[in-house]
Amino acid sequence: MDWKNILRSHIERKVDLADEQFDYIASFFKPMSFRKKDKLIRPGEPVHFEYFVLNGCLSTYVINDQQKTHILQFAMRTWWASDYNALYNQGQASLHVDCVSDAEVLCLANEDREKLCRELHSMESFFRWRSNGGYVSLQRRILSLLNNDAQSRYEELMQQYPELYNLVPKHLIAAYLGVSRETLSRFQSH
């Protein structure tokens, strides 16, 4: 897999880059491979990277005091994942980031992202676009949780991301929706 083409295509959805600019940008990204169930981020540890998914799927989640898992995000191909609070504030992780499947990612250190933003206006624009898109998605998710019943949330999720159904185990989809596995099975039978 040519990770540079995937990354360049992703960035150039919003900004144009000359070849030498992209080569410089790509030099900050470190390709890594992980296996299913590998942990990229653990609560209580420092967070040094954000991850751009080339292949596979990651999940970002928290486990509450009652040991219930709450999934905040699935990150599939060309999505990003991290514990952004810990990354940006140089604190300890409060979230887990695990591999739902075998995954190939690009790692970008926080200080390298900041350096790219300082040096290249195009990258500052790209990362602003990406952050804004993430904020909009988060708002949509919160509004859906507040306004829709579980059946509607499931239908909305499957309509927006039909590939999740085959990529992600059903108990994780249930945890994302905040329902039991049995409830999810009832949704799927309709």
Automatic annotation (TrEMBL):
Domain of life of the organism encoding this protein: Bacteria
Question: Which stretches make up the Cyclic nucleotide-binding domain?
Answer: 32-118
What InterPro entries does UniProt report for this protein, alphabetically? Answer: cNMP-bd_dom (IPR000595), cNMP-bd_dom_sf (IPR018490), RmlC-like_jellyroll (IPR014710)
One Pfam family this sequence matches: cNMP_binding
Q: What is this protein called?
A: CRP-like cAMP-binding protein
- Its source organism is Sphingobacterium paludis
From the broadest rank down, the organism's phylogenetic lineage runs: Bacteria, Pseudomonadati, Bacteroidota, Sphingobacteriia, Sphingobacteriales
